[in-house]
Design a protein that fits this description.
The chain has one domain: Rossmann fold (3-Layer(aba) Sandwich), CATH 3.40.50. The protein is built from 8 helices and 11 strands. The strands form 3 sheets. A 7-stranded parallel sheet has the order 3-2-1-4-5-7-10, with helices on both faces. It has a two-stranded parallel sheet with strand order 6-11. Helix 3 runs parallel beside helix 4. The chain is globular. The chain starts with a strand and ends with a helix.
Length: 267
């Protein structure tokens, strides 16, 4: 069975590694904190402590001896940090080129699409987005093939959206559609890509149902028995809906949580 190493074994990477191990894959995961090594080991995940400064620590060499690399490192969006992130990703590519990895799965975001009242597909990404720049750092390589997944807003264990806007007043964007995805679907989609060897692709990934922010966050707060947010009645603006038609067609993927309102009951 192939070996899969996950760079960034956190909220998504850790449960993903557990699921891959259940399916017989040899899964390893990286963390930046020594204190998390024991937890990863207890889950059967071979741990690596890898830090960026933005150079990778020298201990990273063994980590890049694998068949598949999954990159799940959310960038810091503070001023000046995007350039650091791009430098980090360039350093990851250099490490890959010295290793044995043949396939890369890069976790990106639907934030690559500019705001606007329209449906967007994979070809509509803003080329000036730093995340698109990061994607292209990997996609431009010829020694390995890269598939990019652009996830919508992540929800699931420890990430209940009911807390995000609870009790807030005059909230803007009430008519904007939500583009979110449950952790279980994130894992299911990644497994589908690996199982079907769908490399060299770009996929949007978010639930099929797109209620308004008003509907979604009001219900999310109610489910948690929190004070509901109050959205501005004067704001009639709308925003993008992220299409996942390519994902459903090419991978024949069936969402575990296609309806985000139903999803709230599971959190």
């Amino acid at each position: 069975m192939k070996s899969i190493h996950i760079l960034g074994c956190g909220w998504l990477g850790k449960p993903l590694a557990v699921e891959l191990i259940k399916e017989g894959y040899h899964a390893s995961g990286s963390t930046t904190q020594e204190s998390k090594v024991a937890e990863l080991e207890s889950l059967g995940i071979k741990p690596f402590v890898i830090k960026f400064d933005p150079q990778l620590t020298s201990s990273a060499t063994e980590f890049f001896q694998a068949d598949i690399l999954i990159i799940s490192i959310p960038p810091k969006r503070k001023s000046g940090q995007t350039d650091v992130y791009l430098e980090q990703m360039n350093n990851v590519v250099q490490a890959i080129l010295k290793g044995s990895i043949s396939s890369v799965l890069f976790i990106s975001s639907t934030s690559v699409y500019a705001d606007g009242d329209r449906a967007v597909s994979e070809i509509d990404a803003d080329p000036t987005s730093y995340l698109v720049e990061a994607e292209n750092i990997f996609r431009s390589q010829t020694k390995f093939k890269t598939t990019v997944i652009r996830f919508g807003g992540l929800v699931g264990p420890g990430r209940n959206p009911g807390r995000f806007l609870a009790g807030k007043k005059d909230v803007q964007g009430g008519n904007h559609p939500v583009n979110v995805i449950h952790q279980q679907d994130c894992i299911g989609i990644i497994k589908a890509i690996i199982d079907q060897e769908a490399w060299g692709e770009v996929f949007n990934a978010c639930a099929e149902h797109h209620p308004t922010r008003n509907e979604f966050y009001t219900r999310a707060s109610e489910v948690m028995q929190l004070e509901t947010p109050q959205f501005s009645k004067s704001d009639v603006s709308k925003n993008k809906v992220v299409s996942c038609d390519k994902l459903k067609t090419k991978l024949n993927y069936q969402f575990i949580y296609p309806d985000v309102m139903t999803m709230l009951k599971s959190l």
